[in-house]
Design brief:
The chain contains two helices and 39 strands. It is mainly beta. It has four domains: about 55-170, Immunoglobulin-like (Sandwich); about 180-270, Immunoglobulin-like (Sandwich); about 275-375, Immunoglobulins (Immunoglobulin-like, Sandwich), CATH 2.60.40.10; about 380-484, Immunoglobulin-like (Sandwich), CATH 2.60.40.1120. A hairpin with a 2-residue loop joins strand 29 and strand 30. The model is unreliable at about 120-140 (pLDDT under 50).
Length: about 475
C-alpha cells in the first residue's frame, strides 16, 4: 500500500472463513494497535495472525423427531460487565427442508443456541412448516433453547474454539401452554394520526435483567380500531409498550400485564404526548454561533421507554424536545464536528443539573434548561512503557475522572497505543484524573469503575485545565488485579 498520507490509522484484514483482524489485535479481540505513519516512513513485514471462524450445526425437530423447516436459529452469548448481564444475538440461520441449520463465522466462546418460530423482528410467523404438514404457531411451539428448554436460564451451552466445527447441536421443539393478549391502543398524543404512520405494540418481560433482542414480541395495531393481538404468550409479567411516530416526534405509552393461566383481554395502552422540554444553548470560545448544536436527552434508567431523544438548536440557540415520558434524564449538547467541545455547565433556574439530572413526572417538566458549551477542553498524549522502560505497542489507555458526574459519557476517555507505544487523546474535560494502561483488557473493563479500583494506587494521577496540553509517561499495569 503506497501513497498514504502521514497520520494515525487502523488497519484491518478480512478473509472468508476466518475472523477479521485489526493490526495489533489480540486473539481475544479485546485490544488493538494504532499504526502511526510519518512523512516518508516505510513499514515492512507487518504480520496478521488470522483465526479460523467456528461453526455450530445441527437439526431442529418436533417431539416426534420430524424435521422442522423455516425456523430461525440464533447463537447467543452472555457477558457480564459492571455487574450487569447482557445477552447478545450474534447471527441467525434458517432451517432447510431437513430441519438442518449451520451457524458460521463465530468467534471462540460459549454460546446458547435458540430455535424460534419468529422472524428476526420478533413477529410470529403465521405457520411453521413441518414436512408436508403445518403447525399453527398459536398455542403450539415456543422458542426453544438447546437441547429442549423454554427458559433461557436452563439452557445448555456450547463452547467453541477457533476453527472448531461442532455438529449435532440438535434442538427438540417443545410445546408449552401459551395464551393470547388482546386489547386496544388509544393515541392521546395527537388529534389526527398521519396516514404514513404506524403504531406497534411491543411486549417486554418484567424482572429480567437481560433478554435477547429476538425474544421481544411485537404486534401491529389496526389503524382504524387501534386493536392488537399478541399470540403465544407464556405465563409471566410483561410490559406492553406502544409507540407512535410522526414529524413531531415519537410518543409512547405502556401498561403492565400479568399472564397467569388464561388469555388476557381488553388491555388498554394509552399513548400520551408526554412533556415538552425547552432550553437554550450558550457557546463559549470559537464555536460558530450560527451552527446548530445537537442536544441529547438520555434516560438514567435504560428501561425507560421512548426516553432517548435528539434535538437541534435554532439559530438563537433555543431547542425543544417533545414527547418526553416520565423518568430521570441527563441532558448533553455537542456541536457537529467539534471534538474539543464539552458541556461546561447545565442548570435549571440556576440550579446545577449535571449531578442530579432532570425529572419528568406526570407529564410535568422543569422550566427552561440552560446549557453552556465550551471548546476549551484539553489534550493528552504520551507513551506507555513496561517496567523495563520499553514502549508497549497496542496498550489500552484509560483516562478516568476522579469525581465523575453520574452517567456522564466523558467520565472515561480511552485510546490505543501505536506501534511505538504512543497514544493521544483530545477533548479531555478539565479536571483531575488517573491514567491507566493495560496490555489486553476490553472496552467495558476499561470503563468499569469497579474494575479500575484495585489498580488506582499504581495509576498515574494528573490534572488538566482548560485548553491545556499535557504529556504523560504511563507504566503498564497487569491485566488482572490478582496479578499485581
Amino acid at each position: 500500500m503506497s501513497g498514504i498520507r502521514p497520520g494515525r490509522f487502523r488497519m484491518d484484514v478480512e478473509r472468508d472463513g476466518f475472523l477479521p483482524k485489526s493490526y495489533g489485535e489480540h486473539d481475544s479481540g479485546d485490544s488493538q494497535s494504532i499504526l502511526s505513519l510519518g512523512p516518508g516512513q516505510k513499514i515492512e513485514d507487518l504480520r496478521f495472525h488470522l483465526q479460523k471462524a467456528a461453526v455450530i450445526s445441527g437439526r431442529v425437530v418436533d417431539e416426534n423427531g420430524d424435521p422442522v423447516r423455516e425456523v430461525t436459529v440464533s447463537p447467543l452469548r452472555r457477558t457480564t460487565h459492571r455487574r450487569k448481564s447482557t445477552t447478545s444475538e450474534t447471527g441467525t440461520a434458517i432451517t432447510n427442508d431437513l430441519g438442518e441449520y449451520r451457524l458460521f463465522d463465530l468467534y471462540p466462546g460459549v454460546y446458547m443456541v435458540r430455535a424460534s418460530a419468529k422472524s428476526r423482528g420478533g413477529r410470529t410467523f403465521g405457520k411453521v412448516f413441518v414436512g408436508r404438514s403445518t403447525i399453527e404457531s398459536v398455542g403450539g411451539y415456543v422458542s426453544t433453547y438447546y437441547p429442549s428448554v423454554a427458559d433461557v436460564s436452563r439452557a445448555s451451552t456450547v463452547e467453541v474454539k477457533a476453527g472448531d466445527e461442532v455438529p449435532n447441536v440438535d434442538i427438540v421443539l417443545i410445546r408449552q401452554k401459551s395464551y393470547r393478549i388482546t386489547g386496544r391502543v388509544i393515541n392521546a398524543a395527537v388529534e389526527h394520526t398521519s396516514p404514513e404512520s404506524q403504531v406497534d405494540v411491543s411486549m417486554l418481560p418484567n424482572g429480567v435483567e437481560s433478554y435477547p433482542w429476538g425474544d421481544i414480541r411485537e404486534a401491529q395495531v389496526d389503524q382504524k380500531t387501534g386493536g392488537f393481538e399478541v399470540d403465544d404468550v407464556l405465563p409471566g409479567s410483561y410490559t406492553l409498550a406502544s409507540s407512535y411516530q410522526d414529524r413531531d416526534g415519537i410518543f409512547v405509552g405502556s401498561t403492565r400485564v400479568d399472564v397467569v393461566n388464561g388469555d388476557v383481554t381488553a388491555v388498554r395502552v394509552v399513548i400520551t404526548r408526554g412533556a415538552d422540554l425547552h432550553g437554550r444553548v450558550l457557546k463559549e470560545g470559537k464555536i460558530s454561533q450560527e451552527a446548530p448544536v445537537g442536544v441529547r436527552l438520555q434516560p438514567r434508567d435504560q428501561n425507560t421507554l421512548g426516553g432517548f431523544k435528539l434535538a437541534k438548536t435554532k439559530p438563537d440557540g433555543t431547542f425543544l424536545i417533545e414527547g418526553v415520558p416520565d423518568g430521570d434524564f441527563d441532558v448533553s449538547a455537542e456541536p457537529a464536528d467539534c471534538g474539543a467541545c464539552f458541556v461546561k455547565s447545565a442548570t435549571v433556574d440556576g440550579v446545577d443539573i449535571i449531578d442530579d439530572g432532570i425529572t419528568v413526572s406526570s407529564g410535568s417538566a422543569p422550566s427552561l434548561i440552560q446549557l453552556v458549551i465550551s471548546d476549551s477542553s484539553g489534550s493528552i498524549d504520551g507513551t506507555v512503557k513496561n517496567a523495563g522502560g520499553s514502549p508497549v505497542p497496542g496498550a489500552t489507555v484509560g483516562l478516568a475522572r476522579d469525581h465523575p458526574h453520574p452517567n456522564q459519557d466523558n467520565a472515561v476517555r480511552s485510546a490505543y497505543a501505536d506501534q511505538l507505544g504512543y497514544f493521544s487523546v483530545s477533548g479531555v474535560v478539565p479536571g483531575s484524573y488517573h491514567a491507566f494502561a493495560w496490555g489486553d483488557v476490553d472496552y467495558d473493563d476499561c470503563h468499569d469503575a469497579d474494575f479500575r479500583k484495585p489498580f488506582l494506587p499504581k495509576a498515574t494521577a494528573f490534572s488538566i485545565g482548560e485548553s491545556e496540553k499535557k504529556t504523560l509517561q504511563i507504566t503498564l499495569l497487569p491485566d488482572s488485579p490478582d496479578a499485581q
